[in-house]
Design brief:
Elements lengths: L1 H22 L3 E5 L3 E5 L8 E7 L4 E16 L5 E15 L6 E9 L6 E7 L1
Antiparallel strand pairs: 1-2, 2-7, 3-4, 4-5, 4-6, 6-7
Length: about 120
């Protein structure tokens, strides 16, 4: 009986994190009347320190925990519009780069092989 209970606990410990990844709780980094920045899952928030929108200068400022090699900006249709070299942990993106709509930012971190995505909705 003990072995069965232990096996069930191990199974749940292994499979529950995978189930939450599939559901994918959205994490909101920033939400204002002008812009919303979100992540597809809580796990991605380990890469980001903060996001803010500066209304006077009309800039989106994203601070990350790792250095960003480059950012790929995709429009709502999934087409790449820009590839920007960054080489820092902080990036400032001007509002003039975006029209109203949804975008996907692909962060290419220096010490991480896969792109990490953030969603941006501009009003």
């Amino acid at each position: 009986m003990y072995n069965l209970l232990l096996s069930c606990c191990i199974y749940l410990a292994i499979s529950l994190p995978q189930l939450t990844k599939e559901v994918g709780d959205v994490v909101i980094l920033l939400k204002t009347a002008d812009i919303e920045v979100s992540l597809d899952s809580p796990e991605l928030s380990e890469f980001f320190h903060s996001a803010e929108f500066e209304p006077v200068e009309q800039n989106l400022i994203i601070q990350t925990k790792e250095n960003i090699h480059s950012i790929l900006i995709y429009n709502g249709a999934g087409e790449m519009e820009f590839m920007l070299p960054v080489m820092a942990a902080k990036v400032t993106l001007g509002r003039s780069m975006f029209v109203s709509g949804k975008y996907r930012l692909g962060f290419n971190f220096e010490n991480f092989k896969e792109l990490t995505y953030a969603n941006v909705a501009m009003n």
